[in-house]
Each structure stands twice: as C-alpha cells, then as structure tokens.
Amino acid sequence: MNLSRQLVAYAVIGGLQWLLDCSLTMALSHSLLPVAQANIAGRLAGAALGFWLNGRYTFGNAGNRLGGRPLARFALVWLTLTLIGSLLLGALEQHYSLTTAWLAKPLLEAGFATIGFVLSRYWIYRRD
Length: 128
Prior knowledge:
By secondary structure, the protein is mainly α. It has helices at about 5-30, 35-60, 70-95, 100-125.
C-alpha cells in the first residue's frame, strides 16, 4: 500500500480507536476510576483494536506476522505513550478539573497518532 492509502487507512482505523478509547475513558472516569487509570483502560481497548486492524490492513502484507517483534515494538510504543498521556491527564485533573482532562485527551491522542503512524510505518510493522 502506498503512503497516501496508508494515511487514509490509518486515519479511519484511528478514528475507530479514538472513539473507543475516549468513550471508555470518559465513561470509566465519570464515576468508577481516576482519569489516569481510566485512560489506561481506554487506550488498552483502542490499542488491541488498532494493532490488529493496522497490522492486517494498513501496514499488512503477505509476510507480516502480528506476533513476535511487531507486537513487542507496538507494546513498547504503547506503554511509553500511555504512561506519558496518563501522567499528563492526571496532572490536568488534579490542577484544573476532570472536564479539562476530558477536553485535553482528544488533542493529546491526535499528537500520539502522528507519532504512532511514523513509528508503525517505519518500525513496528517493518519486515525484518
């Protein structure tokens, strides 16, 4: 798949991930969990969906395996971005409000999506 098709596929799949992630984060943080913990649950649900869909459709090819190195690379990126995002959202909630953290989450995820695309294309799903 060429770059423009990958961008479109990544954006569509990312939109699905974003809806699942943000909805779950907001639902869980509304009354069950602190926003930082809810963010981890939301990102985990979105990550599972995104890893599979992007590995199969966006960056997939006949030789791609979705376990092994791609999974380890994905997990490293996901853990790093989730930690950063959760710390930032927790700080926003603590210093401002839960609503502020909710409003910041989509913007934060948009930045992470850009980082994720580049790393997915050139490192995570790369055939070795």
